[in-house]
Write a structure and sequence with these properties.
71% helix, 4 helices, mainly alpha, single chain
Amino acid sequence: MKSLDLFTIFFASAAYFVLYLLWYSKFLFKKFYHVKNEKILYKKRDIYYNAFIFISILIMAYTIASFEIILNVTNFKDGITLGFLFWIAIIAPQTLINSYKNKKPLKLFFLDNALYLIGSLMICIVLAG
């Protein structure tokens, strides 16, 4: 039986957090988060906001690790499947509702969900190994 490996959970969380920081940096997709009337949808993040994001990712990774133990996920294919199902069942509907409610452009919905899909797949694959 597999057990929770806190180092692997921390590593997967740190990898997702680095991906998150790069995703919203000026090197990748920051230019898409400005709309024509100069209203910024994503304001500059401070250290407390980033700490909150990292803790949220850490909690998500711990929860996914617990599910992987319960479901006996032990290989790459099972990790990909769990990551996709986690994204399609929990993350995508919530972000769709948020985007519709806040009247965000569809392009931002797809950009955000690409990050969430890649991140959840990355966490599940790392934790499955």
